[in-house]
Structure formats: C-alpha cells, structure tokens
Amino acid sequence: MIYDEPKLIPAGDQALVVELGDEINTALNRRVHDLTHLVEEQRIRGVVDLTPTYRSLLVQYDATETSLGEISNAIHDLEDRPGTGSSEQPLVVHVPTLYGGEFGPDLEDIAERAGVPVAEAINIHSSEEYLVYMMGFTPGFPYLGGLDERLVTPRLETPRQEIPAGTVGIAESQTGIYPVSSPGGWRLIGRTPLNLFDPSRESPSLLSAGDYLRFVPIDSEEEFKTIQDSVAAGTYETTMSVKQ
Amino acid sequence: MSQPSLEIVKPGLFTTVQDLGRPGYQRFGVPVSGAMDRFALRAANALAGNDVGAAALEMTVIGPSITFLVDTWAALAGGDLAPKLNGAPVKTWRAFRVSAGSQLTFHGMQDGMRAYLAIAGGIDVPKVMGSRSTYNPSGFGGFEGRALAEGDVLAAFAPDSEYKARFMPADRAPSPYGDSHALRVILGPQHEAFTPKSTESLLSSTFEISLDSDRMGYVLDGPALQHVAGAGVVSDGNPLGAIQVPGDGSPTILLADRGTTGGYARIATVIGVDVDRMAQAVPGNTVTFSTIDIAEAQELLREQVRLLEEIAAGPPVVDQRVAVTVDGVNFEATDADGESLTREPVADPSNPGSSHQVTATVSGVTYDFEVTIEPGDHQQT
C-alpha cells in the first residue's frame, strides 16, 4: 500500500528512513524519486547522502551538524508544498540489446512459458519504458519495474557462477542488467554492449534511480560488436529522450 | 605537490588506503566504503597534523612492513598491532618522527584489529567519485583499487608550513578495546518485524563474532532472532550499523562496504561511536547490546569531534630525539609527562638506532646517567 502520510523512522543516530509505502509499484516509486529531487533542491543542512529505493528514501545525515528533529521538520515542510512533482521530466535512456542466443540463454524458455514465439517475446520486452526503481546489488545495477505480465518468470533455482557484464536478466516482475561480471540467479534474455558503470567516467553510472529505460533490439552480433568498439573508444553517444 | 613517501616491504594481511568514504553515490549502488573505524582514522590524521579526512592506511590483524622514503612525521591510531620503528616499540595515539630509511614493522595483534597509519600531508592517490577510499570488491579507489602489495610505493602530499604533530591527551584514547564489546543501539527501522521475545533476546544475550566477518559486515553467532512473518521486507536503504537478520536468524551488522540496499528486516542500528568500536572487534570476541537515546548517541558523536579539535589545538609533539645508553641495565624511557614511551624494557641498550624522548627512569627510580641527544644537544636527569 501507499501510506496517506509518510512514516519517518530513525535508522540509528545518523539516518532517517522516509517510508512512503510497503510494496513495489511504479506510482509509489515515482513518489520516492520526486521526494528525492525535492530534498536535493532544498539543500537541507547536514544531509550527507540520499538513497532512493522501491518505497522509501534513506536520508543519511551528519549528526554533528544537524539533529533528527531538524531533519524531520525539513522533510515535513516539503510535504506541505503544493504539487510535490519534480520540475524536471525524467529521461529515457536507450539501451541497445542483443536478445537471445548465447547472450540470452533463457529467452527461449521464457517465450515458451509465455506461449509466444521468441520474436514476439523480444517485441513485448522492448516495447516498454521501464522505470529504474532503484540501484543496488553492485555499483550501477538497475532494478527495473514495469515488465509485461506474460514475461514474469521466477529466479533460477541454482544461480549461475558467472554472468558476463552487460547481461540483461529477468527475476519475477523485474528486469536487471549486470554492470560487471558477477554470479546471479536472474533469467538471462540478452546483453547490451553499453558500459553501465565506469568509475573513471565523470558520471560513473549510465543510469540513475528515477530514470526510464528502453531496450532497443540489436539485429546482429556485428552490430553488437560495432557498438561495443565505439563504447570502448569513447565515441559512442547514448541516445536519451525525455519521458512523455 | 606530493612525493614518494612509503614503500611497502611486506603488505600484511589486508592493508588498504582509506579516507572517510564516498557518500553521494549510493543511489547508483556504490557503497560508501572508507575507514571501518572512522574515529581512529580521523584521530591518526589529527595527530599527524592533517585534515581529519585525509587518506591513510587501514591495516588489518597483521600489519605491513613499511620503509619511509622521506624525513617526515607519522601517527598511529586504533588497534595495537605491536608497532616498532627501527626495532623499538612506538606508541599508538601519538605522532612520531621518521627519517628516510626508517622501518615501521608490526609484531602481532595485541588489542583491537585495525590500526591506522597517517603520514604528514596525507596519502596521495587519485580521487574516485570524490574519495580516496579503496572499494576492493569492485576494484576501484585507493591504490589501484586493491589491497597493497609488496613493492608498492605511495606518495604523500607535502604538509603545509604551519604543520604541527600532536598527541592524544592522556586517558582520552578509546583503547584498550578488550575482548568483549558493549554496543549501544537504536531499535529499528524494522524491529516490529520481529517477535517481542527476539528484541528481548537481542538486548539480553551475548553474541560471538563469527569468522564470516569482513568490511561489509559482521555476522554474529548467538540465539536465533525470529521474525513475525518472514525475514524479507521490500528492499530499502542500508544505514551504517544496521543489524539485519536473514531467515536463519543470525544478526549481521552492516559496516563500511555494505551494499547500498537490502531486503532483510533490520531489528536495530548500532550507534555511530560504537560502529568504530565494532571495527576493532575480532572474530571470537563477544558483543552485547543495550538501547540508548538518539539525542544521547548524537552527543557522543559531537564529543568525538570536540576531542579531535582538542588534539589539533593541543601542544605539539616536540622533535626531541634522545638516544639512551645504560650499560646492561633494563630501563623504561618516559616523556616529560611521566608517560612510558616503551611498552617493555629496552633489552638492547647498545642499539643506538632506538630513539626515545626526553627523560628515562628505571623501575620508578630516576637514574643518573648520560643521554646523548641527536643532533648536538645534551641533557641529564
């Protein structure tokens, strides 16, 4: 559910959870990102870091510069502001993805469960704009909401030991992308040649919580390779549009 | 300006460059990292005359062997890993002078498990996302994104001209840490996900720190804590010090390298000053928990800041090195405050390389003997 009033819950002596609800859905998560923008814009004294998640915002603060009371009051004041939407329209980041084959070994299985041909499964998956609910697990890993019900699939019973960087996976009603090669139990449907996280870039993470993402199917391994090479050369320009 | 200042002769068990971490990137899934014992890192810097957030070495259980490449000042804070400078014991919580060629070695964990070495000016490694901290699991930050290895050479910034080395006022250091740790917590953010009996159990039982403990978190062995309806919550942010409890009921305290988000209910959160203490707790040590008021906990954080300011404003350590020679007699060297400069009697007084400060006494009795001061001064007691 989405709460009528946010719950402010202390998390130790240096953090405060602003909880807006207790479920995973786009409307609730959108509110979290709007609140995050508002808190940022207010530049509340002593706030050290903000972690927006599915249903809450974790506000970490420097208790030697402010107090729980001051932070709580500042957050309460924000709620009283009319139209708590952010002034900025969210971005849609276009992520070229090669579906199926060795890059997406579980795609056939997912299509079969959905009772559709593989091409239709790709079509379904790539026609949504997914909200980046939150990031976590590893630096740059996005949890994407908004998967078509037909593609909802549970995690693998036995996780894979190594999933290559850029791999796109599905777990229940979510899509994720592995930024670096890591173990994992999500069902793998494709791979992007984009580099989702590079600590040496000025903005290390390609995606931010609150962005939207669209998967753009790549036709061939050659095209995948071409994009990969231009990413490596630093000449690739990520396509972004404004969410309508 | 910086110059090569430290060479790693032996890396020790796990030695990394850390500062106060990289807040601001958790929304991208990037852990904060930074010193596990934030107070000890800040103190080491304050003692070495640095900004409290300068980069320093975090040394774990088995310290490294280091050769200094320049004449400078350094300071140790935190755990006692039995440090020696050129073979003579060196004090923790006090700046000390080193020369090019000086050897700093560590001879076994005595108390606490993480020691911090600050060098005047602070360690110069590139900032990644605003911080010099090492995040080893993803291989970025610090020195080439990894723990230090034999042969690594680290640069330090030049200290400014107003530079002063310091010491911790007597009895203000948090050590010795001991083997049992009483930690204070704020209940929540999700303690209502646990049975009342489990909260009672958390606050009345003794837990043991398991071997499955690292910079991400400490797993505790003890009575299993029970959830009312499952361990999972809709994933949200992981605050520093949160005690999460997965389905098996073993509490895990989340520390510097914790993931940014998690989906296990958190019964309580260890307060900031006690997270520092946690960082010094060794697997096999015991911990107990009690609750504290948030305002009181925050006052303790402010007390830490006041102490650091006191160090920085306090009298400097004077560079007055004294070589003591007592033929065949064991003695203890003390400074002007009567504080022992050595942990054990100097067994080999014939070694002129061991340098001590100011005065020396033997078993509480002041002896008349000659001391040779380097360079070119002379003093008797």
Furnish the topology, listing elements before pairings.
The complex is a heterodimer of chains A (244) and B (381).
Chain A: E1 2-10, E2 15-21, H1 26-42, E3 47-52, E4 56-61, H2 68-79, E5 91-99, H3 107-114, H4 118-126, E6 130-135, E7 142-145, E8 160-163, E9 167-171, E10 174-177, E11 182-184, E12 187-191, E13 212-217, H5 221-233, E14 240-242
Parallel strand pairs in A: 5-13
Antiparallel strand pairs in A: 1-2, 2-4, 3-4, 5-12, 5-14, 6-7, 6-13, 7-10, 8-11, 9-10, 9-12
Chain B: E1 2-10, E2 16-18, H1 38-47, E3 56-60, E4 65-68, E5 72-80, E6 83-85, E7 88-89, E8 94-98, E9 103-106, E10 111-119, E11 123-124, E12 153-157, E13 180-187, H2 196-204, E14 207-213, E15 217-221, E16 232-237, E17 242-244, E18 252-254, E19 261-264, E20 266-270, H3 272-278, E21 286-291, H4 294-313, E22 321-324, E23 332-334, E24 356-357, E25 359-361, E26 370-374, E27 377-380
Parallel strand pairs in B: 13-21
Antiparallel strand pairs in B: 1-4, 1-12, 2-3, 3-10, 4-9, 5-8, 5-10, 6-7, 6-9, 11-12, 13-20, 14-15, 14-21, 15-18, 16-19, 17-18, 17-20, 22-24, 22-26, 23-25, 26-27
